[in-house]
Design a protein that fits this description.
This protein is mostly helical. It contains four helices and no strands. The relative contact order is 0.03.
């Protein structure tokens, strides 16, 4: 649970604890926290023991870690021979590179006709609607012209 706490984070937590609780009350707070954690651990162990005793002798090798979804999936993938064979035959990195190469080839192929055709017109002679025209033609003036009033 606390495996990913580094030295800097630990020092920061100690400094914050000293600032918040003070050096006088800090040992008492640590004792209370340790006692609370010990009570929770004892409660969880007794609950596990009760569950194992209620399940009966056929589940005596039952491990509660198997209920973790990651552990369950990992165990199923390693035990199932068909899935293991499928997993070894499928190379995800190779598939990703093939798809990326195909997309890059299509993108370069699509850009070639536009460059060869020249101008802003596409291969069908339609104007590029995304490019803003620099000046409207005199016949394309908006109907709400300020000079007309």
């Amino acid at each position: 649970m606390f495996n990913d706490i580094g030295a800097l984070e630990l020092v920061t937590l100690v400094i914050l604890a000293v600032l918040i609780f003070g050096p006088d009350k800090l040992p008492k707070v640590i004792q209370d926290a340790a006692g609370f954690i010990r009570k929770i651990r004892d409660f969880s162990e007794s609950a596990k023991h009760d569950i194992r005793s209620e399940l009966g002798p056929e589940f005596k090798d039952f491990d509660f870690e198997d209920l973790n979804p990651k552990t369950f999936i990992r165990k199923q993938l390693s035990e199932n021979e068909d899935l293991r064979e499928l997993r070894t035959s499928f190379d995800l990195k190779k598939e990703i590179h093939e798809v990326a190469d195909a997309v890059n080839d299509r993108a370069s192929d699509a850009s070639v006709p536009a460059a060869v055709g020249g101008g802003t017109a596409g291969s069908a002679g339609t104007p590029d609607l995304l490019k803003k025209p620099e000046r409207p033609d005199p016949g394309e003036r908006p109907p709400f012209d300020a000079d007309a009033t």
